[in-house]
């Protein structure tokens, strides 16, 4: 699965966030490290979502491409 990631460079390194996963952030000293770290953060985020929804009714809804920013 692919996610859009926003990278922001600063004097401290590179911050990474995932707009479609609120609160999913990470960082690294290089862009490559930030991308590795955010991939791990995404996996951890999704594991928590899976745990929180395990006893819930979950459905998927398709959104037409023209409505996706």
From TrEMBL:
HicB-like antitoxin of toxin-antitoxin system domain location: 3-55
Domain of life: Bacteria
InterPro entries, per database record: HicB-like (IPR031807), TA_system_antitoxin (IPR051404), TTHA1013/TTHA0281-like (IPR035069)
PANTHER family (UniProt xref): ANTITOXIN HICB (PTHR34504), UPF0150 PROTEIN SSL0259 (PTHR34504:SF2)
Name of this protein: Type II toxin-antitoxin system HicB family antitoxin
């Amino acid at each position: 699965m692919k996610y859009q990631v926003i990278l922001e460079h600063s004097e401290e390194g590179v911050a990474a966030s995932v707009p479609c996963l609120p609160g999913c952030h990470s960082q690294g000293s290089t862009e490559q490290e930030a991308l590795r770290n955010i991939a791990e953060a995404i996996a951890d985020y999704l594991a928590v979502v899976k745990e929180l929804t395990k006893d819930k009714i979950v459905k998927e809804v398709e959104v037409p491409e023209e409505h996706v920013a």
